[in-house]
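--- STAGE predict ---
source: upstream dedup step, 1 unique chain passed
mode: sequence only
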Amino acid sequence: MSLSSIGSTNIAADALFSALSSRQTQMTALAQTALSAGADRAMKGDYEGATREFRRAIGLDSSPENAVKAYNLLATSYIQMGRTEDAIQAYKSSVSMAPADDTAHLQLGNIYFSQKRYNDAENEYKTAVKNNPTSSTNLFSLGQVYLATDRNQQAEDLFKRVIQMDPGQHGGYYALGQTYVQEGRQQEAISEFQKVVGLKKDFYAVHVDLGSAYIDLGERSKAEEELSFLNDRAPDLASLLNAYMDKTTKPKILSAYNVSGFTDSRGPGTPVSELDGSLSTPGASRQFNMVFLFTKEMDAASVQNPYNWSITKAAYGSVGGAYNWGLPTSPTDITIDPVPVSVISLPGSLSATVSFMINQNAGADGTIDPSHIKFKFKGKDLYGNTMDASADEYSGISKIV
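--- STAGE serialize ---
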């Protein structure tokens, strides 16, 4: 080959390289334009249009420098559209092109976490931490997996590291407080939650956690302060705290009243016949009803079980005094079956109707002390909480105790 031929070949190669470089530059520019257009569409809520632009950008320039960003933006749009599996595939494509980057691993882990695929999420978070160990966000996310899978000590260790890395950020303190709650260390949790309040006063969610921790410790008045705060500033969050308070608070008898003539205000020696005319006949029987209202929704089966109720004569030491004021009873004094005939309570209702029998004696001169007949309930509420001992019984004279 002559020197002139070699020279011609080099010139042709240079021209081809120049042309290819120019074309690649043009393609890259078009890809950047598509990325910008996709971002604009996404900001306007046109996620379908955004995904078209991002896919176009990848087709125009598939180099990692361009495609990784495009895949990440594509995944974000898919998430907004509810196309989670497509988002996962987009992030996987991003990871395959830039395995040493932590961003896509973190976002992919977040999707898995939201799906409760904790093993997959943990693997992605661990890779993100390995790729970027100085990111407190990566450590925080891994800690959330540990917390969700009851590895509390590991979660605690990570959240403390997060706090050391970013002591001025509230997230680490908040997560550490949640970890303490899960471990039953409510007092320590409250301390962490209070730090969150000091760092970020508009992070109202922490007041739900504070109120819940106070309830767990039996400090209801402080929980009610948190509830009042949320009612003023974040009613939706207030409903969450209120629900937790309701779920964990022991039920009480709120009020009681008779609906069939059992006058529980009358005292010792009351003639049975005066409770109802039908009891003037020797040996007659009459069913009476008392209605009880509870402070919260009760377990219907528990309420309707007659053996969870008792009807007795007030003993010595009872609030309001003993039956017949503690004096010897008359031979005409009648007895009442300690177990109700029936109890009716509909699901979702806060009330119960307790039915019981009163029997006249053979001489038709029976007497009773209605004011010292004590009704007591030992069942449970809808969440399995037992009755508050300060308000689980009622009598006409003591009222609710």
